[in-house]
Amino acid sequence: MELKGISREQFVRLKKGDPTVIEELYEVYKPLIWRAFRGHPKGLSSDEWEQEMGMLFVKASNNIKEKDFAAFTTYLQTAAWRTMQKLRARHEKEALEYGAPTAFHENTMEYGTENSIQSKQSDFEEVMACTEIYQGLDPLHQKIMVLSLAGYNSVEIAKITSNQAANVRAILGKIRVQMRWY
């Protein structure tokens, strides 16, 4: 599918701040926008991504001169990719900052009226077991576990940790086996 791109008239309207042109351009560039979204972190919603792209349209119009309007598509494509990389890096940093045990605390915070004291005790024991497993891992394995919980696949984790995807899958398999023992 070939993108038809932005016209000079649309670019001028975008520079002037016409809100209707953003909707038009969104329809034109929808394939590009959602192609960049494919590798998003689990915590990023599609609504947040649409908002980021709306801001990107405005930023692109400010950074490109009217005579260079034809460069808009390339600029938008590169900027969308970079924006996603920044969001992923921020998500990864937060995952590494807070560590794996905090990812499991979500389950212990859902105290509905139907939950019994036994299920709360069971949730607490699971969190403690996961924390013990996490703390018993070496730093590389901890990082791999955190990245996996953050939603990265084994190929992406391999690139981040300068490892091979097969090694990452093996490490994750060993961690999963340890989790089943508890």
Jot down its keywords.
mainly alpha; 182 residues; elongated; 9 helices; single chain
What's the mean pLDDT score? 76
Helix-residue proportion? over 70%
How many DSSP E strands?
0
Report the end-to-end length measured between terminal Cα atoms.
50 Å
Q: Supply the helix-strand structural class.
A: mainly alpha
The shape is: elongated
How much is the radius of gyration in Å? 22 Å
User: Could you list the spans in which at least 5 consecutive residues all have pLDDT below 50?
Assistant: 100-115
Strand % is: under 5%
Reading the helices and strands in chain order gives HHHHHHHHH
Q: Number of helix segments?
A: 9
Biggest β-sheet, characterized? Answer: none
Description:
The chain has 182 residues and is mainly α. About 9% of the residues have low confidence.
Compile the SSE list and pairings.
Layout: H1 8-16, H2 19-28, H3 30-37, H4 46-63, H5 72-108, H6 117-136, H7 139-149, H8 154-161, H9 165-181
Helix pairs in contact: 1-2, 3-5, 4-5, 5-6, 5-7, 7-9, 8-9
Compact overview of the structure:
This protein is mostly helical and 182 residues long.
